[in-house]
Every structure is written in C-alpha cells, then in structure tokens.
C-alpha cells in the first residue's frame, strides 16, 4: 500500500466496526468525553440511507437523523463524493480569500429563500453561530436619534424558544435550567408568552418603549422544535411582521431546525399557513443544510439587514469553508433533483395518518409539519417509549415528558414510515401500580 494511504496509529476510520462491543465503547466514553450529555444510548458505527448500526451489529431505523440533520440519510453517495472531491481539490482557505463553493452556496441560499436584491449571507459552522450573528445584527439595529424613537435596546424572544447554548444564543433561549447556571447573560432580552399576540402588542406599545426602550429584534422559531414541535398559531408571524416593520425592529426567524426542506418547503415561513406571506429580515439555518456536515448561515434579507454588520464586525475561521459549502450545495442539489420537498409532505402526512389511525390509547395526536412531527402521548412516559423504540430498532426522541419527536431523513420511504407507524400502533407502557 502507498504509505500515504496507511491508516494512522490509533484510528482506522470506518474500519472501527466490530473493533469493540458497545459496552466497551461506552466505558471508554465515560472516561474520556465530558459528561454534558449523559451516557450514550448506543455507540453507533455505521449508517446507510435511513438506517444506522451500533457497535454490537444491531440495525436501527433512524427517525431522528441526528436531530433533524441528516437530510439525505447516512453515507449518501452524492454528498460523500462532493465532500471528497472538494477536500481533494481545496479543503480550507482563510476568509481573506473567496472560493467558488462559498460564493455558489451564498447565491443558492439567497435563491431558495427568495431573498430580495441587496440580501447577503454570513456562513457559519452551526446553528448557534448563525443565531449569534443574528443577535449581533440586532445589537447594531439600535436606531439613531433622528428616528425620533427611544434607542432600540430590547430583543424579544418567546417562552419555549431554543436558539443555542453560547452566551448570546443562550440569552435568547428561554429555558431557566439552561440559562441560570451561566448568568449574567447578555442583557436586554425579554421572553414573551408563546403565540400570544396581545403580549406582542404590549411589548411594542409606546408605554413599553418609554419604560424599557425600543425593540431591536424579535427572534422566533416558526415551529418551536425543542419545546416539543409547537407551530406558531396562524397569523402570528404576519402580526409580528407588522409590529416589527413599524418599529424598525428586525424579524429574525430561527429556521435552524425547520429549514432546508424539513417541513416540506425550503423554509417553514414560506408556507402561507405558517408565514402568512411575510418577508423576514434575517433567517438562521444550519442542521439539515450540510446533510450532516457542520454548516450554517444567517441570511439577511434586503440591504438594510445585510449591511448591519460592517467590515471587521464579525468573523469566523471555518465558516463558509469550501468543504462545508460543497456539502451544503450537494445536499440542496439532491433535495431539488430528487423532489424531496414534495415527498417530505407526502411521507410526513402518511406517517401522521398511520400513527393516528392505529388508535393506540397511549397516543393522543400527532402534530407538526412535513417530517418534523411530535407524537403527543396521553401519559408522561416519553422516556419509556423512546427506550422501547430503541429496543425495537427505532431511534426517536423524548422531546418532552409526554411527547416523542420524529425528525427522520428527508429520504424516508413510505415503507419505512409504515414501519415506524407500526411501532406506535403497538407500543405499551405498563401503568405504575
Ligand atoms: C431552533 C434552533 N436554533 C438553534 C439551535 C442551535 O443549533 P446548533 O446546535 O447547531 O448550534 C438549535 C439546535 O437544536 C435549534 O433547534
């Protein structure tokens, strides 16, 4: 073998399959990996399409896709080829230079977002970083004395909202358990009750502005993901758009979880029942964008939003690197070529219908859109259901004590959806005595 192709000591890449048992890997994990996630449910070694295999050789239907990430499933040949080809051509340059992949990705994102002239993209490595960029844009949207208003110092977000764990993104994230250990967080953020237009009216009212300052931005998820797949009520975003426009505030849509085809359109806000036809100021994306390769973006709509961050006011070493950009272009290309936006709607509807039709008394309803769904349970036994699913060869997520989240690859077939529905038709959890 050519020396250059010899595996390096200690790691043989994909060849790790069968090297050790799941129990042995888990033990090593507990001694080497920081305990922020708790012990791994399984150690996974390989994937193909909608399936993954664990270190003990068991196969699972992946109905979570790395939490709404693996849009094309695992080891998709087009994605693998695009990443390999880019790595073999030009893997990384500094942001002192541009690359064709980076430029083409920014153009493509503007096109699928139907962003108006003057719009621009900031490329990142994660959803958190995309949100952080949006937060910095909000801080630059202070307003000037000539606006005649109070300076825009407040940033509004919603209860239940999740936007990431860096200090800025955490300030926007509502959950007290995530926030409190790290206070003080960047100030000026207010959390409003979810989907409550009266609360929104109050936050923008002259009295609130006089007492607490003007609003620089409202940051919302069109469908709250981590809060248990909660779509905003119809009409909310249109109302929010009217108020933000009037106040000169940015309407920031966090589509990190809902974007890139997950709900059956490129972005959730593009569906009239969700977006009500709004044009946002900023959309954040990540997760599905790279099909599993880390990449994200903050898309600024129109010249005003696109010029809030001037030269030197933001940066990143890896963001927009050619490999991540090639991965994203390949992912977007496959979604378009294979008509996945349509099949997401069809497969999502099928999955929802079949689960609901089975009439399991443990299942109250299924909510969500496309392939971002939550199975609402009639009892708070989501953890037990998720464990039963794993034992039955399915990966799902107990997103709330009484709700299971499903966010499978966008390539999920009808037969695979039926396999998933069969599990929900028959799963039982004994009542506590
Ligand atoms: C809506 C939303 N925003 C931001 C984030 C943070 O993204 P990341 O984990 O890629 O940093 C997430 C992650 O779950 C998310 O769901």
Automatic annotation (TrEMBL):
EC number, as in UniProt: 2.6.1.11
Entry-annotated residues carrying N6-(pyridoxal phosphate)lysine: 287
Cofactor note: Binds 1 pyridoxal phosphate per subunit.
Binding residues for pyridoxal 5'-phosphate: 127-128, 162, 254-257, 317
Any one Gene Ontology molecular-function term assigned to this protein's record: transaminase activity
Pathway participation: Amino-acid biosynthesis; L-arginine biosynthesis; N(2)-acetyl-L-ornithine from L-glutamate: step 4/4
Entry's localization field: Cytoplasm
Entry keyword set: Amino-acid biosynthesis, Aminotransferase, Arginine biosynthesis, Cytoplasm, Pyridoxal phosphate, Transferase
Enzyme class: transferase
The keyword Amino-acid biosynthesis is annotated on this UniProt entry: yes
Recorded catalytic activity of this chain's protein: N(2)-acetyl-L-ornithine + 2-oxoglutarate = N-acetyl-L-glutamate 5-semialdehyde + L-glutamate
Keyword Cytoplasm: yes
Family: Belongs to the class-III pyridoxal-phosphate-dependent aminotransferase family. ArgD subfamily.
NCBIfam families (UniProt xref): argD, PRK03244.1
Subunit structure: Homodimer.
Protein name according to UniProt: Acetylornithine aminotransferase
